Amino acid sequence: MAFRSEDSTPSAAELQELISLLRATLESTADGILVVDRQGRIATWNRRLAEMWRIPLHILESRDDERAIASVLDQLRDPDAFLAKVRDLYATPEAESFDVLTFKDGRVFERYSRPQHIGGDAVGRVWSFRDVTEQRRAEEILRQSEERFARAFRASPIAISITRATDGMVVDVNDAFRRLVGYEEDDVFSGASIELGVWADPRDRQRFVEALDERGSVREFRTKFRARSGEIRDVLVSAEPIDLGGDRCILAISTDVTEQRRLEEQLLQSQKLEAVGRLAGGVAHDFNNLLTTILGYSELILLSRPDDPNLREEIGEIRKASERAASLTRQLLAFSRKQVIEPRVLDVNALVAESSRMLRRIIGEDISLVTDLSPGIESVRADPVQLEQVIVNLAVNARDAMPEGGRLALTTRAVRLDAPLPGRTGPGPGAWVKISVSDTGVGMDGATQERIFEPFFTTKEKGKGTGLGLSTAYGIVKQSRGFIYASSEPGRGATFDVYLPSVHETPAQRDVEPEPPVLSATGSETILLAEDEDALRALNRRILESHGYRVLAARDAEEASALARREGTVDILVTDIVMPGASGRQLAGRLLADRPRLKVLYVSGYSDGTAGAEGGLDPGVNFLQKPFTTETLLRRVRETLDGG
Fold first, then answer.
1. At what angle do helices 65-73 and 79-91 cross, to 10 degrees?
2. 482: closest CA among 470, 500, 503, 496?
3. Residue 65: enclosing H or E segment and its boundaries?
4. What are phi and psi of 45, to 5 degrees?
5. CB 102 within 8 A of CB 77
6. What angle do CA 276, 295, 277 make, to 5 degrees?
7. How many helices (H) and strands (E) does the chain have?
């Protein structure tokens, strides 16, 4: 269309073309448009208005204002507010307005109204309506999603933080993060740079951010946080970068693994002790065989020259040294849980009370000994001699920690646990008896506590201890299916807690050792001797044959079984418990199946589990502990043959 100058009058054709252009523009808009005159009468509209308001076209085409208004009001949630707004605008022709209309069926329109001018005067009003239902619905979904995220963020038991990547300023943290680093809910946190102070080593945060930049995300970055109290916590941090209003931020999840690390260290320490224990047990086993051989041949030499006083004195020194060495091997075997034990049902209070009477002579007059025995506690199953040794070893250790005197306390308690003790790998749920040995001595630091149960570890001066006291106690307790813990601080004494599983049985009466009967150590019976150590087998055969016995010697269970089948008559089996291949117990089982009246004497200073559960002997089993003397061997063989 060609445009004329301002003073020219458009032709009818030009006006018609202009009207068509305006109508096409009106119909092309996505908004509903309604034009009214100053009295509010309908002047024009587009089809989009009819569609949005669901007004029949014939009503609009007839300019039926009342029916059109009635159709509109019937759809609105608040028709009165709609009418009031219309009246206000008609009363002020120059006013503009924007508001939101809500429909009964959930639709939402934005309404905009402005005056229409001709020649500078308002001659009517243009109403435009925009359907924002889907937009508002999307906004509501987003709002609800953000609200759910906010609730999950706040309530999550996992520590979550949002910080700026550039300077570590805190955007937001949840309550779990506050608890992790020791801040209360009312502490100001957002917008602070305190996040930087949370990292125990600031260089770790720098490495963390660099890893995030390089890989785009970080999984389980191991570091340490310093809590407000100064406590150091082990944490694993996983993070993703996020954008918040144009700022590059870090959304991080921090998992407190302090307790897990502590348990891992305990497990590692336990595994180390297990490895050392296996080594110590193997050494002690071999050493016991050597000691038995040394003692046996020393006695044979002495018997061959009974009138030589110098030889008797020298052999006596050999025997004393062997006995001291045997004491060390017994402690090594106790630590490694390889000693053969004789468990019985015990009254713990009675055993502690009896031990305390002996301890008063050991600990010295400058140390006061007090006992606090809880009445009515249940029994435990343990070797009484071994458990008494635990108490003595702990008490002696406490005495050495109080060089200037102090207080030593022995207590017993019944403990029922519903869950494992915090920070420890045991004891688990159940009924336990706890024996505690406490002192007021010099105490121990953490590094010392980590090693106290290692064999040969000691903080005493050279020559003042073997370093086997606590390791022996550890082994005895573990072999009795118990647990032992130490808690201490430098200058504040130490407490050793021994946990043993309680049993619902009546304690057995402790036997009084009878006087050894006067027996003839000689005999003529046939002995099947099974011993894998060549030197010891030869020695024992020589000793027994020199006292009248007929000896069939075998190096293992297979050879012993073959000898028994070939020889026929066997009166007694003397067998080492631990041998290559089948054990002594297995060998005895084979032979007893065909010879139910066969007598059996087990010999060992070591258990690999073949002696019975936890290395314990069954009731009534005849047993000879290595190392032993010639006299002891002969006596035990004779007692077993005679039914002892």
1. 140
2. 500
3. helix 65-73
4. -160, 170
5. yes
6. 5
7. 19, 22
DSSP string, 405-453: -EEEEEEEEEEEESSPPTTSS---SEEEEEEEEEE-S----HHHHTTTT
Token pair belonging to 384: 């009484």
* Residue carrying the six token digits 């305990």: 266
Residue type at 341 in one-letter notation: I
CATH of segment(s) 156-256: 3.30.450.20
Backbone angles phi, psi at 607, to 5 degrees: -130, 135
Spatial neighbors of 274 by CB under 8 A, at least 6 apart, are none
Average pLDDT over residues 82-87: 86
Confidence of residue 496 (pLDDT cuts 50, 70, 90): very high
Q: Token pair of 391, please?
A: 């108490």
- Nearby residues of 341 by Cβ (< 8 Å), 6 or more positions away: 382, 383, 386, 479, 480, 607, 614, 615, 616, 617
> Counting beta carbons within 10 angstroms of the beta carbon of residue 148, is it exposed (0 to 12), middle (13 to 18) or buried (19 or more)?
exposed
What gap in Å lies between CA 183 and CA 176, rounded to an integer?
A: 10
Side chain identity at residue 138, one-letter code: A
Domain spans, the chain: 26-131, 156-256, 344-503, 526-641
Closest CA to 226 of 201, 247, 258, 209: 201
Share the mean pLDDT of the chain: 80
Residue 32 corresponds to which tokens in the numbers above?
Answer: 């509903």
Same fold, 344-503 and 526-641: no
Query: Residue 567: pLDDT above 90?
Result: no
Place 318 in a pLDDT band, splitting at 50, 70 and 90. Answer: confident
Report the DSSP beta bridge partners of residue 435: 412, 498
Return the residue matching tokens 């497990």: 267
Q: Which residues contact 374 (CB under 8 A, 6 or more apart)?
A: 349, 411, 412, 413, 414
Q: Which of the four pLDDT bands, split at 50, 70 and 90, describes residue 572?
A: very high
457: its two tokens: 């570890």
pLDDT at residue 511 tops 80:
no
Written out in words, the top-level CATH class of the domain with range 344-503 is: alpha beta
| CA atoms of 127 and 31, how far apart (whole Å) | 10
Please report, as a single letter, which amino acid is at residue 326. A
Sole residue written with tokens 């290395």: 615
Could you report the per-residue pLDDT of 258-305, keeping only the tens digit for each? Answer: 877 877 776 666 666 566 656 666 666 676 777 777 877 777 777 777
* Beta strand pairing call for 159-164 and 170-173: antiparallel
User: What integer pLDDT is reported at residue 514 of this predicted model?
Assistant: 43
- How far apart (Å, rounded) are the C-alpha atoms in residues 592 and 576? 16
Superfamily for domain range 526-641 = Response regulator (3.40.50.2300)
Distance CA 549, CA 156 (A): 80
Give the range with max mean pLDDT: 285-289, 611-615, 629-633.
629-633
Yes or no: domain 26-131 corresponds to CATH 3.30.450.20: yes
